[in-house]
Amino acid sequence: MRCPFPSALPMTSKPFDAYSKEYLQELLAPTGEVVAGLESRDEARQIDVWYVPDPQLTADRLQLGLLGRMAAQPCIFEPYSHRPDLNQVRSCVMKLLVTLFDALRAASRDRLPAPTESELPRLWILSPSASPTLMKRIGGKPDPSWPEGIYFTAELNRAGFVALDGLPETEETLWLRLLGRGRTLKQAIAEVLALPPAELKRDKALQLLASWKTNIEGVEYLNIEDRELAMTLSPAFVEWERRAREESLEQGLQQGLQQGLRLTLQTLLASRFGRVDDRLESVIGYFAGLTPEEYTEQFPTLLSLSRDELVARFGARDGNGNGA
Question: Which helix (H) or strand (E) holds 16?
Fold first, then answer.
């Protein structure tokens, strides 16, 4: 049964860090290998999210829209809650270069062909926004084959910078914009809430967003920006809480109906045969597991068949669905 209050994320002094890693893990895990907080082998630096796609799950990955397109090859995701400065971008590029050289050395050591360009990892820096000054300093330029808001540095660096507030507000970019801030995040949450309840990613996103809000409010001192962020996340939290309570109530009602049905069947069979033993209990178990339509169709047999006939027909079932 679903807990009525979200608890997917560990309490931490860095709520966005926990949310972004868990969020990318949840979305990408069904389509490949994903590791959050991976230690770089040659440097005391931690890779936020490392991902390697499974080529057999390409169709599933493409359901993630632009995020799935970005994850078409091994990659490093470095999400930021605030726009990174030049030195933070350099640190990200360093992580990538260490990973690149590690892959090349491993191939040489094992006497394997060097990885092709498509097999080498790419870096994606996810930022709430981008400034013209920073893009100029890192050589970030748009690519007409990619949506607005994405900038690429020199191919030598294999790095892409994603300004989340610059992405078009389309279904394709939704799962990325949930990592944004301010209006970007508020709009993305509204779009998630508008998705059909049966959409599995909707449920998971709401759970993680609600947990993010819980983590923020667990910090001892909140500044104005944190309080505004918590307010932005409130609709997701409210919907998650409503859904959780609704599911808990529904499961409770189902359990109550099951218990009531079993009691009714026990009373009926006891009135017919005097005592309900283990073999008749198995008949009750069979009828309690039927759908309402199946139950209505088969109920008359409870009134017409003898005890032995009921046990033979509906009693303990073997592995092939036959009566014991």
Answer: helix 15-28
